[in-house]
Structure formats: structure tokens, C-alpha cells
Specification:
CATH topology of the largest domain: D-Amino Acid Oxidase, Chain A, domain 2
Distance between the termini: 21 Å
Number of domains: 2
Structural class: alpha+beta
Helix content: 10-25%
Strand order of the largest sheet: 4-5-3-13-14-15-12-16
Number of helices: 7
CATH superfamily of the largest domain: D-Amino Acid Oxidase, subunit A, domain 2
Order of helices and strands: EEHEHEEEHEEEEEHEEEEHHEEEH
């Protein structure tokens, strides 16, 4: 049974219909290989997800909910020091599809890229997946597998009693009281309140992600030389159609958008070329990312028998979806095997 107001209802079609939900306000950037670390939990999760993503797309792709991986991703170096780190990273991973491109070897593009002046790193296998198309594909898969869906929220969790069959109780916003064998909490910022009543302190802070949709004054020539994702100073630029562009980043703490921060993002910290400054704003939307406090993201924990936490992915919810799902599946299998 899935209790989720988002996946249990139709997925929004337009940016104007997106709410503060992190998934519907995401750009779906997958930066798993162009990651500076080469060890540790964060690195392993990224690597596992990038391994799983092609199979996920193949399984979820359907005429009613088409899905594909858009590649590559290019990061512009913002300084000589960053360029050196990129060169070292590409040299250290010869089989990962990473390549550093010196500034004087960057090809011509239409429209021109921001001129950071220090070269760039190409990641052939990184890129993006459209998050709304992903949600539609997941929803279709849920329906195909006859998963019961509830378009409501869980407002309280109650521990199993002392009966032979130890079941959790879910109290929902529509007044239901459900008995279940196992609970997986994956409700981002909403996870904290559910866990507090059980004595589990997992505070998370809201960080605002913003996206602008811009229309160029003159059509681009099929975005010649552009990757699926161009990253400049932590800000993502994504071609969208012949003459439209998305610009997005997760930069602001709190829940309210700061117009000054939005303008700084649009101007790419004063690196925006003239065509970008002249582009027409068609719309903007934002969503909240859940960043764990004093703990690394994401939170993947078995808190009690039958209670799993898979939340707090911060900026990497879409990227880490396959690895997270695999972790949950393994723990559900373990729980099933060890249950009386």
C-alpha cells in the first residue's frame, strides 16, 4: 500500500501546477560520475545508482510514459584551481567517461556558453532524467503491479502491540486506521514529525530549489554543441525545446524565495552571456529539499523492526532513487525472512 498524495494522483503537466514537493520541482540532474570523492558511502550510493539507472529506464519506458536518459553533462571550471581538480579527477578515472577540456579547445556553441575562462569537464554518462516523466512512469508501474494507492497523508504512527502478529498502525488524514507489517518512511521534511512521536530524532532543514523557464529572443540552432546539462558555478542550464531553457539550483535555506538570489542565479553570478540576460521569463517554480541536520544525506536506516527510514536526500533525490529503492528492497526481504 502506498500512502502518498503525489503518486496516488495524476502527475502535474505544467510548471505552474508544481507545488513545493521536491520531486515535481526537480530538474532530475544525474551527477554520479563527476563526483570529487572516490570512496565513502556517498560515493558508493552514486556509483550504484548510475549502474542501475539504464536498467531502470529500460524497464520503466513505455509508450504511455516514455522515459530516457539524456546525456552528457558538462561542468564549467570557475577557477584555475577547480580546473586542476577536474583534470586530476579525469586522469584518475580513465574508464568513467570523464574528460577535461582546456579552455582553448572548447568548441563553438550556439548560443555561446558562459565564459568562465578555465575549461570544462565532460562527463559522458552523467546527465538527467525528466522528473515528471519519471513520476508518471513510476505511477504507471504501480498501477500495473496492482499496488493500492491512497491520496492522503499519514499523520501518526503507532508501534505494534504485544499480539502474536506485530503490526504497525497508520493513522491517516482521512480518518483511516490501517494495520501493516512494515513501514517505509520516505516523506522528506514530513518524516521528522512522524518519527518524533516514536522518540526518534531526525531533524531536517528545508533548502529551497529554484527553477526559471526562459525563452530565447531568437531560436537556437538545435543548441549546437550543448550537452543535456551544462553546470556553471553550481547552477544547472538545461536546453528545453528549440528556444527554451531551464535554469535551476538549490541554494537558499528556508522556505521563501529571495528575489535577489533568484536574480543572481539567472545572471549566473555575473557570468551570463548577453543572450541569456535578454531572454524572456516564461515562468518559475520552486521546491523544498530536505537536508538532514548533523547527519550525512540521505538517511537510510532501520530504526526498529518493521520501521525503515529512506529520506533526506537533499539535492540528490532523483539521482539516488535506484540505490535507495534497492536498499529498501533488501531490507524488506530481510524483514520478510526473519519474521515469525
Amino acid at each position: 500500500m502506498l500512502v502518498d498524495p503525489s503518486l496516488a494522483t495524476p502527475i502535474p503537466e505544467r510548471p505552474a501546477d508544481r507545488d513545493l514537493n521536491g520531486s515535481t520541482a526537480s530538474l532530475g540532474v544525474l551527477m554520479g560520475l563527476a563526483f570529487r570523492r572516490s570512496s565513502g558511502r556517498a560515493w558508493r550510493l552514486r556509483q550504484r545508482s548510475m549502474t542501475l539507472w539504464p536498467a531502470w529506464v529500460e524497464q520503466l519506458n513505455h509508450p504511455e510514459s516514455p522515459l530516457q536518459l539524456d546525456t552528457p553533462l558538462i561542468q564549467l571550471a570557475g577557477s584555475a584551481e577547480e580546473a586542476q581538480r577536474m583534470q586530476q579527477l579525469a586522469d584518475a578515472r580513465p574508464d568513467s567517461g570523464l574528460q577535461f577540456i582546456a579552455n582553448d579547445r572548447l568548441g563553438e556553441t550556439d548560443p555561446v556558453w558562459p565564459q568562465a575562462g578555465h575549461g570544462a569537464m565532460l562527463s559522458e554518462r552523467d546527465g538527467r532524467v525528466d522528473p515528471l516523466l519519471l513520476l508518471k512512469a513510476l505511477r504507471r508501474s504501480l498501477i500495473e503491479h496492482n499496488v493500492e494507492r491512497r491520496a492522503t497523508e499519514v499523520v501518526e504512527l503507532q508501534r505494534p502491540g504485544s499480539t502474536a502478529r506485530r503490526q504497525w498502525r497508520l493513522i491517516t488524514a482521512d480518518g483511516r486506521n490501517e494495520a501493516v507489517d512494515l513501514v517505509v518512511i520516505c516523506s522528506a521534511l514530513g518524516s521528522t514529525k512522524l518519527l518524533q512521536s516514536l522518540g526518534h530524532q531526525r531533524p531536517m532543514d528545508a533548502v529551497l530549489g529554484q527553477v526559471l523557464e526562459l525563452q530565447l529572443n531568437k531560436p537556437a540552432k538545435q543548441w549546437t554543441g550543448w550537452p543535456a546539462v551544462l553546470t556553471c558555478g553550481g547552477i544547472n542550464l538545461i536546453p528545453h525545446g528549440h528556444n527554451r531553457l531551464w535554469i535551476g539550483a538549490t541554494l537558499e535555506p528556508g522556505v521563501n524565495a529571495d528575489p535577489a538570489a533568484t536574480e543572481t542565479m539567472r545572471r549566473l553570478n555575473e557570468l551570463a552571456p548577453s543572450w541569456l540576460n535578454a531572454a524572456q521569463l516564461l515562468g518559475q517554480w520552486h521546491g523544498l529539499r530536505a537536508r538532514p541536520r548533523d547527519r550525512p544525506a540521505p538517511l537510510l536506516e532501520e530504526l526498529e523492526p518493521g520501521l525503515l527510514l529512506a529520506s533526506g536526500h537533499y539535492r540528490n533525490g532523483v539521482l539516488l532513487a535506484p540505490a535507495t529503492a534497492e536498499w529498501v528492497s533488501q531490507h524488506i526481504d530481510k524483514e520478510t525472512i526473519t519474521s515469525p
